[in-house]
Structure formats: C-alpha cells, structure tokens
Write a structure and sequence with these properties.
CATH topology: Beta-galactosidase, Chain A, domain 5
Number of strands: 21
Oligomer: single chain
Shape: globular
Structural class: mainly beta
C-alpha cells in the first residue's frame, strides 16, 4: 500500500510503500529547486546519488546542482536556472503542495514559481506528480504546465538543462558498470565505444546498472508523444547525468548556427509530461511490464 504524508515543518512530502520509505519530495527554500531525495529500492538501496545532500563513500562529488530527481533549465529569459553558482535563478514552491492518495496512487499537486537572480518573475509552473506501485517497480508521472503570466518566456538553446532530470548513483555510471539504451537502438554499456546515446532524439531512454549492494536496477524515462519537440533530445552522460532536454540542439549537433530556443508567448502556456519507471534488472527487457508501461503512458 502506498501512502504519502505532508510534513510542512520539514518542507517535504514523504512517500512510503508498505510502511517503507520510497522517496521524499523536498521543497524547502533552503535550496533553489524542489527535488526528490532519497529514492530507494524496496530493500533500501539508493537509486540516485546522495551528494550534495549526503556524503557517501565512493560517490563522485561533481556538479552539486544535480540533486537526485529534479527539473531545471540553464537559460530562461537569459537567466541561469540550472546550476547554483553566482547569479543563478530559482524555482520555489509556492506555499505547501496538496498531497493525497487516489486510486492507489500518491499525488502531489502544487505551484512552482520560477525567478531570475534578483527576484524577477519569469513564469508560473503548475506541477503535478502521480506515483504508483507495480510489484517491485515504481512509476512516477510528472505533468508540468508552464504559464507565461509575466510576458514571453524563452527557453534558450543550451545543453545545460532537463525538464526531467536524474543523477544516478555513481555505481550505476555507464562509463563504468552501467548501461544506457534508447528507443532508437543506441546503447552505451560499461564504457565501451562512443556515448552514442548523448544528444540523440528518442521517445525513451533507460539508464541501468548496479546499486551499492550489486543488485541491478534501472530508470526508464519516457517523453510523452504530445510534448512539444517530441521525441526529445537527451543530455545523458556516462558519468551519471540523465536529462530530457528538448532545447539544447546546437550543442547536441555541434552547430552554432542552430537556435532551438522555444518561446511561450505572454498569456499562453505549454505542457510537458514525463514518466519515470524505476525497475529491477538491467535494461528495458529486464521486466516485460516496462514496455507495456511505456505504451500505456503514450496512449494516455
């Protein structure tokens, strides 16, 4: 049974399955964006990197803005809302999200305001999550509606971004013992050959490999067919970064003459939907249900 509890004193919503912690949605303004952390297997193994929240032996400690599972973009109306260096913007939860359980799925519903570095209002995001259980698998759906309430919103062309982003645990890094595969047949496995999965368009990407105790687990992220720019490009790297980024085309193609910025006109909105399937095993063929869940999402 899945349960979700809002803990406003700690600025988080806690999701449990059969009484065991699965994840926490952390939205406190002590950090510049909401994120999910930790993210755990049924027996408590970490499915995302601990840094910068926790210091874990053997983990890479680069890119402190890669906070487990999150949304961010490096060029919004010219402002950096990706990293956390000097002059960055922020995505801040407005008040407390609404949480509950409906049809055996945990739901998180709220508004995230995007600001420039000096408090400039950039956009309003209505962000909705639904989390379900499929045996040992977990399914997290995200719907983001970006509302241009304060004038035009320009998502600039940069690889530094991910409307759905994950930093996998170091043990899962594909340049070491992990594996990346996408829907068009590209595979990057255990550091062999070129990272052919980087900068490619694909309907889905799977990043899998060992967790700390050696068990094989994976993340499959699906780009919904109704999303702008579907199939999205992927900023997915062997060192553990895994993002769906429809806007970084000039970097992905290595062509500075390309400008794949996207503008939401003032008063308009744009919706992006993603599904994350967390599964035991290596690759999308590890569990027959994975491809069924991909198809079910695309048809929804």
């Amino acid at each position: 049974m899945i349960e979700i509890t809002l803990q406003p004193q700690d600025s988080k919503a806690v999701v449990t399955v059969d009484g065991r912690l699965f994840t926490e949605y952390r939205y406190g303004h002590y950090v510049c964006r909401p994120f999910f952390y930790p993210v755990l297997t049924p027996d408590g193994q970490r499915l995302t990197r601990g840094f910068p929240v926790d210091d874990i032996d053997g983990e890479r400690q680069d890119h402190p803005h890669h906070r487990s599972i999150y949304t961010a973009h490096g060029l919004v109306n010219g402002y950096n809302l990706w990293d956390e260096g000097l002059g960055h913007g922020a995505m801040l939860q407005r008040g407390e999200p609404t949480v509950g359980v409906a049809e055996e799925r945990a739901v998180i519903d709220g508004t995230v305001d995007w600001f420039g570095p000096e408090g400039q209002k950039l956009l309003e995001e209505w962000r909705w999550y639904q989390i379900g259980v499929e045996g040992d698998m977990r399914v997290l759906d995200q719907r983001s509606e970006f509302r241009a309430l304060y004038g035009d919103v320009v998502f600039g062309d940069t690889k530094e971004g991910g409307l759905f982003a994950i930093r996998v645990p170091t043990s899962m890094d594909a340049k070491d013992q992990g594996r990346i595969e996408n829907s068009v047949g590209d595979v990057y496995d255990s550091g062999a050959g070129e990272e052919t999965t980087w900068g490619k368009q694909a309907a889905w990407v799977d990043y899998s490999g060992p967790v700390a105790n050696g068990d094989q687990w994976g993340h499959t992220v699906v780009d919904h067919q109704a999303n702008p720019r579907h199939p999205t490009y992927w900023h997915v790297r062997g060192y553990g970064l895994f993002t769906a980024n429809p806007f970084g085309v000039h970097d992905f193609k290595g062509d500075d003459s390309i400008d794949a910025s996207m503008t939401i006109a003032g008063g308009d909105s744009a919706v992006f939907r993603y599904r994350l399937i967390i599964h035991p095993g290596r690759g999308v063929d590890a569990e027959p249900r994975i491809k069924e869940l991909i198809e079910e999402f695309q048809e929804s």
